[in-house]
Structure formats: C-alpha cells, structure tokens
Amino acid sequence: MNVKALFLAGGLGTRLRPITNDLPKPMVPIMGKPLLERNIEKLKSYGIDEVVLSTCYKPHKIDKYFGDGKKFGVKISYITEDKPLGTAGAIKNAEELLSDTFLVFNADILSDIDIANMIRFHKEKGALATIAVTKVDNPSAYGVIEHDDDNFITAFKEKPQPHESKSNLINAGVYIFEKELLNHIPRGRAVSIERETYPLLLEKGYKMAVYNKCGYWLDLGTPGKYLKVHKDILKGLVPIGNYDFGQNRTYISKSAKIDRSAKIRGPVYIGENVVIGPSAVIGPNAVLFDDAVVGMGAKVVDSVVWDNVNVERGATVVNSVIMSNCRVDEDSEKYNSVLTENFSEPIAV
Fold first, then answer.
1. b/e for 221-236, b at 16 or more Cβ within 10 A?
2. How many angstroms separate the CA atoms of 287 and 230, rounded?
3. In contact, 1 and 43? CB cutoff 8 Å
4. Can you give the C-alpha Rg of the chain in angstroms?
5. pLDDT on residue 139
6. Which residues form a coiled coil (predicted)?
7. Which end of the chain is more exposed for a tag (fewer CB within 10 A), N or C?
8. CA distances to 59, 261, 294 from 330, in Å
9. 309-330 residue pLDDT tens
10. Which of 343, 347, 299, 297 is nearest to 321 (CA)?
C-alpha cells in the first residue's frame, strides 16, 4: 500500500505529567511497549510500512528507540521542529516526505479504527480530507463536527453549548489527506489544522468526509486516562499486540516466578522475569511490566507497575502508576498516585 503515515509526536504532554516529565508522550508504555510502537505495529498489519515522525519535545528519546525503523520492519523518517508549529504547521513541515495520499495520527491516541477500511472510504468519497470521528456524551468540552447524510462535513463548532449543535461527534485525531491539501497551509508559522485549516477548506467548498466507524478510542491525556486504557485492555475492549483479554483474562509470561501461595485475581498481565513473593495479591486489573518484583504479602490492585520496580513486602498499591526503577517501601501504601523515582503525585479521581 503506497500510503505513508505521519505521526504528530511533538506535544509536551503537559496534562500527563509527571509521567511525561522525562518522556515524550508517544514513548509512554502501554503493556510494556511505547504507545507509538503499538500504533506502528498496527499500521504494519495493514501493510503500511513507511512512517514519518514529526518530533519536538525530547526528540532524541524517540530517535534513539526507533532508529531507522528496520528493527520494527518499517522505514522511519524524522522531521524535527525547533519550535512548536501547531498541528497543520507540523504537517506542512513534513511535506517533502509524504506520499500523494497519506495518513496523519495524533501520537497520543489508542483506537481500533480499521485503517484499510478508512482508506477505501476516503477514495470512494473522492474527498480532499477524511477525518475519523468518535462519539462523546458531552461534546461541549471539544470541537464538534456536523455532517450531511452523505457523510460530508457541513460545519465545525468549537466547544458548543448543548443547544448550539445536534452533533456529538468529535475529531478522533486520525486523518487521510490528499497532498493538494498542503497548498492551503502557510509555511513557517504555527497553524492549527482544527481551528484554521479545516474551516478554511470548508469555506472554499472542498469535499471533506467523516469516517464514523470508531469502536474504541481514548486519548492518553492524563494519568487517570493512562490507568483507564490499561483497564480497558484488560476488559478486552481493545486488543493490543498479541493480547486479547476478551478471550483470556490472565496473561502470565513463561519466565515469571510466582510463589505458590500468591493470589492472582484476573484480569492481570504479568511480564517477563517478574517475581511475586509468598501471600502477595495481584489484581484484579493489575499490569506488571518486565522485571518487576512484588514482595511477600504485598498487594497490587487496579494499577500499572513499570519495569524494574520493587514493591517491597507488605506494601499496598491501589489505582496507581509506579514508574520504572521505583521502590515502594515496606508496609507503605500508595493510593491514587503516580510514583516517579524522585517523588509521588496524586492522580485526580
């Protein structure tokens, strides 16, 4: 499939702090692998193997991990912004690297959109742009999209009051564009695709379609949503890589060492070389990345524990994210928190 994919991976991830204090948002791990890698794996399954990464915040961390993409079976090119150019500015900046028809992804979302089907739909509609949309209960916090019976866009409304729009569809951050669209984006300044480019194209009468077949969608905007996405994976709402918890509620790697007296309450994910001590309780809704250690009588519930973490004996971890290389002290309790190597911060619940 001669379609390239551009990931807008330059955001600061401010709302996701402290998880993103030292990590670009696309590198935040989902079931032990960076979100960006999860999304690239998915594209590869559709035969899309040329990827462009537009980076800005801590770009070396992305570059160092992915390199030229060979290790992941794809070809990766990079374009880095010195200063943030906004969504449209970042796309314009990558112009020379893009195909005639190309995909654009906000790099902080996880969804089950069928990309092959969306490309087919885009071609059938003969649209300049196709925007994937997702339904929300309360669209007043978002920009909504209105469309006609043929699925062509008729209006964009920014954060409407309930009486101002009948639509509850919002932009899902996945687009298919024809390259001609780039002629309508000015170069060299910050431009928002949502607030500037789309309304302009509509005004000029270009065909823009909505693709409304998104079953699962979540943006990883906050630590609370980061926890939610793992709980949703464990519920089987969205398959990730080779794991489908709708079929099997418990995944335990072959290299994990679990004491016979420990209690494992599904759904759980237990990664490589994890060690779980006597009388420990894991789950429900617990995710342990590789090389985590859970001591005697410790408890991990509704939480995501990253690699090389040590939850010491008698400690309790509930509804929390414990980041790489952290230690949860003996007999201590972590509730609704993100624990980094240097400090602990509460999660808004």
1. bbbebbbebbbbbbee
2. 8
3. no
4. 21
5. 73
6. none
7. C
8. 37, 19, 11
9. 999 999 999 999 999 999 999 9
10. 347
**CA 184, CA 92: separation in Å to the nearest integer?**
9
Give domain limits for the chain.
4-219, 224-346
**Helix H or strand E encompassing 269:** strand 268-270
Residue with tokens 């290299």: 255
Residues recognised as catalytic: 159
Q: How far apart are CA 184 and CA 194, in angstroms?
A: 13
State how beta strands 129-135 and 169-178 pair. antiparallel
In this structure, how many other beta carbons lie within 10 angstroms of the beta carbon of residue 45? Answer: 9
- β-bridge pairing 29-30 and 33-34: antiparallel
d(CA 33, CA 50): 20
Distance CA 256, CA 252 (A): 7
The span from the first CA to the last CA of the chain, in angstroms, equals 43
- Amino acid type, 22: D
The residues, any chain, with a CB within 8 Å of residue 177's CB and separated by 6 or more, are 91, 101, 102, 104, 128, 129
What are the start-end ranges of the E strands in 35-183?
Answer: 50-55, 75-80, 101-106, 109-111, 129-135, 143-147, 153-158, 169-178
Residue type, 225: K
For the structural domain made of 224-346, what CATH number should be given?
A: 2.160.10.10
Residue 75: C-alpha distances to residues 3, 78, 207 (Å): 12, 10, 31
Give the integer Cα–Cα distance in Å for 39 and 9: 12
* CATH hierarchy code of domain 4-219: 3.90.550.10
Residue 292, CB-side half-sphere exposure with 13 Å CA sphere: 29
**What mean pLDDT do residues 274-294 have?**
98
